[in-house]
């Protein structure tokens, strides 16, 4: 009988600990979620504006557009922006939802990420169903999107913004060269499971996953150390 009592006591303690953790963190999560706008470093209007001006300044030269955007964001938010856009070591492949492209992390924290994502050869896949709102500012090329029940695609040319609301899902396609400034606001860590699923189940590209983890952790921890959740 003693082993059974010990096991029962251990389970009780475990459930008690879980209950306490939920009781402590649930109100914190609720308050943060209710105040995402006020605690965010970046504003959606700001990002759309700098994207439009970057397109105007860079024309068809994607590198110049990215340089313009990153330089201005770094000037406005020096503590929260990674300015090394022209360092090849800052770029990694991203495989998620069947789509593949290149990614450079401008900012990553618990409640926000800002990246340049795109490809020079086109791609297509599943957006994922996320715990954050996703804003896709098209810089060059086009993004197409589709939802079941519709018979025509949503088409987003340069200068437009595609807002994928939290919890929604679409099929998307970049039919040719396309690069975008992508901003997510919400709970970022749960999105990482989607970001790594293809790596574990399909590509098995361990070096790329390692570099992605290292870059993301560097940015998230760096922001946490200066009080940015």
Tell me about this structure:
The protein is an alpha+beta fold. The N and C termini lie far apart (48 Å). It has a six-stranded antiparallel β-sheet with strand order 1-2-3-10-5-8. Strands 4-9-6-7 form a four-stranded antiparallel β-sheet, with no helix packed on it. It is globular, with a radius of gyration of 20 Å. Helices cover 44% and strands 27% of the residues. Helix 3 (44-58) crosses helix 4 (62-76). It has six helices and ten strands. Strand 6 and strand 7 form a beta hairpin. It has helices at residues 2-34, 36-39, 44-58, 62-76, 191-203, 206-225; strands spanning 91-96, 99-108, 112-119, 123-126, 132-140, 143-146, 154-156, 161-164, 171-174, 178-186. The longest helix is centred in the N-terminal third of the chain and has 33 residues, at 2-34.
Brief descriptors of the model:
229 residues; 10 strands; alpha+beta; globular; four-stranded antiparallel sheet; 6 helices
How would a textbook summarize the main sheet? 6 strands, antiparallel
The rounded Rg comes to: 20 Å
- Tally the helices: 6
Mean pLDDT: 92
Regarding quaternary structure, how should these chains be classified?
A: single chain
SS class: alpha+beta
Strand and helix order? HHHHEEEEEEEEEEHH
What would you call the shape?
globular
Indicate the proportion of strand residues: 25-35%
Helix content: 40-55%
User: Total strand count, please?
Assistant: 10
**Low-confidence segments:** none
Instruction: Write out the strand line-up for the largest beta sheet, numbering strands in chain order.
Output: 1-2-3-10-5-8
The end-to-end distance, rounded to whole angstroms, is: 48 Å
